[in-house]
Amino acid sequence: MSEPHHHGAQPPKVSGTSFALIAVGVAGTLLCVAATVGVWLLESRLNHARQQLELAAEEALELVDQKITTARTVVGEAKITIDEVEERLGTWTREELTERASDRLQLEPRLERIAQRVDQTQQVLEGTEEAASAVERLLAIVGKLGLSVSGDVLDSVGTQIVELRAEVDTIETAVADFRAQLAGDEHTDQSRFAQATRLVARLLVTFGRVDQRLSDLANRVPNLQQQVAQVSSRTHRQLMLVTIFVSLLLVWMAAGQVSLLRRGMGR
Q1: Cα separation of 111 and 92, whole Å?
Q2: 104 vs 228, which has greater pLDDT?
Q3: pTM of the model
Q4: Coil, helix or strand for 4?
Q5: Rounded Cα–Cα distance for residues 256 and 32 (Å)
Q6: Over the stretch 170-193, which tens digit does the pLDDT of each residue have?
Q7: Using 50, 70 and 90 to split pLDDT, how confident is the model at 38?
Q8: Is residue 158 part of a domain?
Q9: Fewest CB within 10 angstroms: 57, 92, 145, 251, which?
Q10: Per-residue pLDDT tens for 100-129?
């Protein structure tokens, strides 16, 4: 008897349905993996943008704080000069005015120093206003993401700076007017004495008010810095939560694709 001829084992045939399940499962799994990677890359970029915004806001607020400190220093120097003028006026008596008329000329250097301090204060406040505007623009960008800092605090800072500049403008005008009068001959020494006394009193009150406003403004900056940090931290948490949620959703979808793949391979 002849031995039966043995042929090689035939591989199992893959049906069309099985092939479709395998193809869909592989493609779906790869897409889910790619989408997960993309989500985390997007989160990384958004987080980097958040960090850059926070850094820019912190730098702008730090500049505001530095400008306020500089303004307070300049105002303090102006107040010292005004005190010197007040002290000099206090040494005058009405009987000595005509005998010591040359003393009034010594007011001019001091008034010039006051005018310089006023001009410096105005320049510093202008820079402070620009820095505050930069902070406002940055926070407006953050606000478009649905996160915002208390508008009351920021509006108050901007309003105070505008009001401060207006106060300094009045000082600048008053000093310029008196210097012009001091240089003229139409006023007597008694008249100049009276005008100088009124001006000094006005400057002391106004500069005292400016210094108080600067102090209040300086106290608001840390509050803004704290709020910026809180907004940044809250944004980071929300980005992370959304990223994790989407990632878990994609993992769940990928598990479904793997199930299809296994079903196709089991047919």
Answers
A1: 17
A2: 228
A3: 0.66
A4: coil
A5: 10
A6: 888 888 877 777 666 555 566 767
A7: very high
A8: yes
A9: 251
A10: 444 554 667 777 888 888 888 888 888 777
Compute the distance between CA of residue 184 and CA of residue 188 in angstroms, rounded to an integer: 10
**Residue 90 included in any domain:** yes
Location of structure tokens 């008329």:
101
Start-end of H helices in the chain: 16-90, 107-143, 151-183, 189-266
Cα-based torsion angle of the residue sequence 32, 34, 37, 40 in order, rounded to the nearest 10 degrees: -70
Task: Answer yes or no: is 15 within a domain.
Answer: no
Distances (CA, A) of 261 to 17, 30, 214: 11, 12, 70
Cα–Cα distance for residue pair 173/115, rounded to 1 Å? 9
DSSP code per residue over 101-169: GGGGGGHHHHHHHHHHHHHHHHHHHHHHHHHHHHHHHHHHHHHTTT----HHHHHHHHHHHHHHHHHHH
Domain count, the chain: 1
Model confidence at 220, pLDDT cuts 50, 70, 90, reads: confident
The CATH number that applies at residue 149 is 1.20.120.230
Residue-number span of the structural domain to which 232 is assigned: 63-245
* Residue 55, domain member (yes or no): no
